[in-house]
What does this fold into?
Amino acid sequence: MAVNTTDTKPRNSPLRAVLPPAMIGLIAGIDNTAAALAIGALMFTGPLSDGMGLGVGVVLFGGALLALVVAIRSVLPNSVALVQESTIAVVAAAIAAMAVQSVGGAEAKIATAIVIIGASSIVTGALFWITGKLKLGGLVRYLPYPVMAGFLAGSGWLLVNGASVMLTGHDFGLEFARSLSEPQILWRVLPAIGLAIVMFGALSRLSHPAIMPLIMIAAVACFNAVLMLAGLDLEVVRDLGHLPAINMSGGVELPTPHLLSKIDWAAVLAAVPVMLVIAGLSMIGLMLNVSGLELAMRRDIDVNAELRSTGLANVLSGGVGGPSGYVGLSMTVLAQKTGATGRGAGIATAIAMLLALFFAGHLIFQVPIFLTAGFVLFLGIGLLKEWLVDTRERMPLSEWLVVAGILLTVALVGFMEGLALGLVVSSALFIFKYSLLPVVRFRATGVEQRSSVDRSPTAIKYLSEHGDAIEVIQLQGYIFFGTADRIVNIVRRRLIAEDKPPLQFVVLDFQNVSGADSAAIACFMKIARLAEDNNVSVSLTRVAPELRNSLTLAGLELGENQLISVLHDIDRALERAEETLLSEHVDVDGEKSLLRHFVLAIGEHPRLPALVDNMTRLELQPEDVLIRQGEDANDVFFVASGRVRVQLTLPNGEVMRVRTMLAGAIVGEIALYLKQPRIADVIVDAPSEIFQLSAADLLRMQSDDPQLAALAHQLLASNLSEKLAVANKMIQLTQK
It folds into this structure.
């Protein structure tokens, strides 16, 4: 039987490769053309209406450059960059303010408006590029979310207000409401509101980006159908204010060099703060869209590379007077879903916008005002809904009130004032909330937390009775003016506490402290004065070099022999405090007899001398090895006098001290019971007398003298119980 070797895999025809990008370019081109008409009408209204053709031209040409450069350089091959409405509202407000304040004629104001638009894009592009070059893109994500939401909601308000000016010539407010009594204005406002409602209703059910252009085309068709049915002439309709007035050029224009001589540079410089706001808003918008694309496409995006490519695109767009923009979320996702691979979608969008330059001249003065105003109104209400209404369900009330406060300030005072209010209130809210976080990780006394030194029963008993004179405070987080004073109050209250013995030692641990400001340093100086006045020894542990330098520069004398000392860790500080306390007790280490230690541990028993006689007495010198890490556990050791240390050798060769054991301590009982290899070395630190009880001796006692064996097990169990009790106290403290 013949085998069919024909390749049955579907071949990618040229049409299949070109069609998806072409469709995206068509949709984006129509959408951007409509947006350009709306943006031009928004920014060039009233005394600037003669510049509408120029405004539409720079939006289309600048947008084409933006789309082309991002398409070529973006880290996402199918990126589609668009002019974004959130910044256009702020640009329009700045241009409106300039038009009122500038003393030049109409041409000078139009030229100045174009420069403000272009300069804001150049500033935005420069900020993008520098941020990406310095690899600081991730820092933008730390901007407080309420401030971001407030800025974007404020942009929505500016768009709504801009639509009001386009329709009535008045800001949205009482004057707007009064103007509705005029039928001529009312019949411009109602269709715009109706169009915005239709857009909301359609897009809430259908999310395809082609829906918006189709609605706008249908609206224009309905408008012209009504004119035909009513028999109204276009010029009559234009005189009634339903169509934009035809300017001197009568079509779309692009900037020419002669405009440079007309620019009011003082007005441009006055708009620099607004340009910085626009750059910040653009940065927020780009980060939000990049985050959305990461989720939608399930891949990480190099934010810094995207900032650099988008920065270059904005600089080029601004060079021809175009507004700023960045990658569009919905259009890029649509390109992905329709199979537009490579960089064709963005390039097709740029081509479509360039082609629109040739047709927009015929459309610009034929598009009814209600359409452009309704589109702007839709965008503004959409921002208000997303960032004011919807965020109420996602934010705590205190944070949402910041959003509402920013919006209210933008509406009543201005955008810059709203910006300032948002930053101040958010900073104050952050400081207040952060100050409520516990600065103390946990507190303990010398009774609850002990050093790693195993002491005699007499010493343990003494520390159990007098350990309250030691206060351990483990700090955490960043210590600043909102939290530092609480540490001082803790020490002050402990000093005057009548239900506890006088405070003698304070241990402040900084292991979990990330830093401290100058106010915190001043508070530590207060603690130093309190310690000096009350003869209290203060130990600082795990202090970072930067903090130690700050304390020294503030005039605090630090050292092991100073009233305030710096030690390696809590264990060293506790050991030092315990030794000082024990040195005040005359008989604390006076007992050198092993028998005496046994009596103090479990009480008098007639067989205790016999137990000691069954052990092997060892006399060891410093650096003698009592136990080696890894060897079998065949015996247990009892320290009659002297000092030994338990240490671990880590895989990297570093030696770490684990415990120190003094007279009365028992060494190696856990490994003996569990029959496990030794997990640490035990080294002699000082001349010591140590008694050894082997496993063989213990087994022999269990066979020959069960009473004596039971006494040995009782002694070992008592020691283990003491260690377990201390460990339980530490667990309880850390879980509080």
DSSP finds 27 helices and 14 strands in the chain.
